[in-house]
Design brief:
The chain is of the alpha/beta class and 164 residues long. The protein contains three helices and eight strands, in the order H-E-H-E-E-E-H-E-E-E-E. A six-stranded mixed β-sheet has the order 1-2-5-6-7-8. It has a two-stranded antiparallel sheet with strand order 3-4.
Length: 164
């Protein structure tokens, strides 16, 4: 059973709860979960549940090994896509994290709010927590590329990747 995140608004989640959620998620799904911030995480439970269901059904893409969930702002098209709480670049986090190897696909449930890219649907867009809203899917980043390379959307109970 997944431990639930409880923080709302400006309330911070404890590092112990985040560590337990990460551990539970790995045990239940085999995926490496990254939660680099501590504020307002309760809404991420929807994301965790959606991904858990995809893994249980055996339909989650095998090439994705890492999931990042947090709140974000800025736009990758403008080079200022950051975690809202810390201001750290999402791409820098991926590049510096020792468990994420260059070339690996990372599912990123982190919003952007800013300039869009007409050739890359999710750039500059928010992410719907359940990954089933067609105009707000999760983003896919190929580690080391510093760009969004696709998106992940759950439709009719099955998640699929669209590459750019």
């Amino acid at each position: 059973m997944l431990t639930r995140l409880k923080s709302r608004g400006r309330v911070l989640e404890t590092s112990e709860t985040i560590a337990q959620v990460i551990k539970d998620f790995k045990t239940l799904t085999g995926l490496n979960l990254h939660i680099p911030t501590t504020n307002n995480l309760e809404r991420m439970n929807t994301s965790l549940h959606s991904l858990y269901e995809q893994c249980q059904k055996g339909v989650f893409p095998k090439e994705i090994k890492h999931v990042i969930l947090s709140h974000g702002k800025g736009s990758s098209a403008e080079g200022n896509w950051v975690f809202e709480q810390t201001g750290e670049s999402v791409f820098d986090y991926i590049r510096r994290h020792p468990d994420i190897k260059p070339g690996e696909d990372v599912l990123v449930g982190v919003c952007e709010i800013g300039k869009r890219d007409p050739n890359k649907f999710t750039v500059g867009r928010t992410v719907w927590n359940g990954f089933w809203k067609a105009d707000e899917p999760a983003k896919i980043v190929k580690a080391g590329s510093n760009e969004i390379s696709g998106h992940y959307l759950i439709e009719n109970g099955i998640g699929t990747i669209t590459r750019y």
